[in-house]
Amino acid sequence: MVTLQLDRLSASYGRRQILAEVTTPRFEGGQVVALLGPNAAGKSTLFRRIFGLLKGGGEVRISGATSKRPVAYMPQDSGVNAVLTVYESVLLARMQGRSLKVQEEDLARVERALEALDIINLGKRHIGDISGGQRQLVSAAQALVQEPEILLLDEPTSALDLNRQIGLLTILRRLARERGMLILVALHDLGHALRFTDQAMVLENGRMIACGPTAEVVTPELLRRVYRVAARIEPCSRGQPQLIVEADV
Prior knowledge:
By secondary structure, the protein is an alpha/beta fold. Helices cover 33% and strands 29% of the residues. The chain is globular, with a radius of gyration of 18 Å.
């Protein structure tokens, strides 16, 4: 099973340090890990550093991977080509780094990715003709179709309505379990993190300030310190933790 561990990971833009020696325990396939923190905490930079788009100190340790390209990354701004259809854009993502000749297996994987995210009905539509939320789901399909063992998703729910947010996170959790994928997802909604993720890591000013099981990380003390809000966490009817914000601190 694939594992990921970060050891003193750092990154800078020019002379400005964005990440400062971020270290994590070993995360395993089958888990969904929330990446939390306020704006400008360094979440996107951390994903770019893990994916290899940025250089810096420290080490990204991946073990147990069975493919040469085990990691797929969905950035916040994917820049999907508006001229292509949804199907074409996902197929193009599938073919990156592969043979130029499209095989039946490639077409089947595109269908599977679209079906997994419940957007198969959008296949023939052009990217420029669909909503921002739908384009976000297409970006997720582009990452998923690469059959990653580790999937990095940078705020994949930001343009989705509540129903779609819950639907996508439910799908991601199921896919992690069924396929043994390790999914790291940057989220701003801490309630979603509590409900849908197994582990959480919290960044503040480029430093890791908390990491562990989500229910142990997302606490009233953390909310007060990092997000400047007073809140309590109570179990809902299904026994899952529920975040209730009381007032600004």
